[in-house]
Design a protein that fits this description.
Structural class: mainly alpha
Radius of gyration: 16 Å
Number of domains: 1
Distance between the termini: 6 Å
Shape: elongated
Length: about 130
């Protein structure tokens, strides 16, 4: 049987990175000084957009199908988990070549401790069963 993840927990961890909440000032990315208009750092913007798109993929998974073991829903979740792992690499172990491709040659971003902590919490999520 395939590993199962708590989709609500995964959703909450992704939201902590990218979404504003009524009970907090703003998301980890919104609070980052290099994300401020008029010219946010391209690396931060690209990474934020990548996480946002990944979160949209997570939200598109039919929870009841996933819970019942649907293969397509499981494959969609595997894709989300893989993208989150890639995000962690982009943030914690940036490659200068990839960084230059993402930013069009702009200086690399320092993602700061808040974003790094939240992305680590995201990839630290463990299956609830196997």
């Amino acid at each position: 049987m395939a590993e199962k993840f708590d989709l609500e927990d995964l959703d909450a961890r992704m939201q902590a990175l990218i979404e504003n909440h009524a009970h907090s000032r703003n998301s980890a990315f919104d609070a980052h000084p290099e994300c401020q208009p008029p010219t946010p750092n391209p690396n931060l913007f690209f990474t934020y957009d990548f996480i946002r798109n990944t979160h949209n993929q997570l939200k598109a998974i039919d929870r009841s199908k996933y819970a019942s073991g649907d293969k397509t829903a499981h494959e969609a979740l595997v894709e989300v988990v893989g993208r989150n792992t890639f995000t962690q690499l982009l943030i914690t172990k940036p490659d200068p070549t990839v960084s230059a491709m993402m930013s069009g040659g702009a200086p690399p971003a320092d993602f700061g401790p808040d974003i790094k902590q939240k992305v680590q919490e995201l990839v630290d999520i463990k299956p609830i069963s196997s």
